Amino acid sequence: MSAQYDQIGDKTENWDVLPVRSGYMEGHTIFKVLGSVKGKSVLDLACGDGLYTRQFKERGATRVVGVDISEEMIRIAQQNEEAQPLGLEYHVSDVASMPSLGSFDLVTAVYLLHYASSPEHMLRMCRSIHAHLKPGGSFVTYAFNPDFSAKGPNSTRYGITMLAFPEAPRDGQAISAELHTKNPFTIHFSYWSRSTHEQALRAAGFHTITWQRPECSPEGLAKYGQAFWQDYIDNPHAVALRCEK
Ligand SMILES: C[S@@+](CC[C@H](N)C(=O)[O-])C[C@H]1O[C@@H](n2cnc3c(N)ncnc32)[C@H](O)[C@@H]1O
Asked: Which GO terms describe its biological process (predicted)?
């Protein structure tokens, strides 16, 4: 499962324009939960092509480092860096077994924990994240929503649909989703309950774990209207999570 993005590669191009991935919903929620990054060092895990890694630097972060398990995604991230240099540093690694990259004010991970292959793998990821934070630092992540409901809305109009989502998902159950980009592709990951996430985070040393449902920005509401977003707001595929060291 881990290197699936080596095959997906540039099919992810422009996926940030999908309504669900846009700054109106996902970006708005992540930056609201994260707060200002100005003057802070940021380690961006599961950075993919550097979508958020670049934004952290553009918003005034100091040292910004991206890590991804996929060589192909890091190749694309580095290509983006060469095209428009921001001084970003990228590494290929599984978060669970990262070498030490330093000590950061913030660790971010937009879509990581549901790629854990077992609770033990998630725990190793969380321990590694904790070890890369300065005392008092924060981990902000965006993960598959453990409360996503098979009975709730699951509309293609947002740019992502869950495929054959089970009515009562079990921990570790395989989940697939389709991304409706120009060259659509399917991703595969595992279902993990809230308590599995929280157990791993607490065992790694985090406290004050706060879940936050996605919110639409005023610009997104003005552009598409409340009615467009309502189904997604009622049954979002992802949620944000903030944890303190
Ligand atoms: C949905 S993409 C998100 C990329 C980027 N954060 C974004 O929001 O555009 C998930 C990424 O997680 C990476 N990934 C999955 N498991 C990982 C692991 N164990 N360690 C590091 N990266 C991982 C994948 O290679 C992929 O690039």
From this structure: methylation
State which residues form the domain around 118: 4-145+193-244
Could you tell which of 68, 91, 118, 123 is best to mutate to test the pocket of ligand 1, judged by most ligand atoms within 8 Å of the CB?
Answer: 68
Closest-CA residue, ligand 1 atom 12, reads 46
Model confidence over 135-166: pLDDT tens digits? 999 999 999 999 999 999 888 889 999 998 99
Q: Distance between CA 174 and CA 195 in Å, rounded?
A: 18
Q: Return the best residue to mutate from 111, 114, 129 for the ligand 1 pocket (most ligand atoms within 8 A of CB).
A: 111
Q: What is the side-by-side strand order in the sheet with 185-190?
A: 160-163, 174-179, 185-190
Residue 117 belongs to domain with CATH number: 3.40.50.150
Q: Give the angle subtended at the CA of 203 by the CAs of 202 and 206, to the nearest 5°.
A: 35
pLDDT in tens, 45-90: 999 999 999 999 999 999 999 999 999 999 999 999 999 999 999 9
Its pTM surpasses 0.90: yes
Q: Count how many domains the chain has.
A: 1
CA 146 – CA 84 distance, rounded (Å): 37
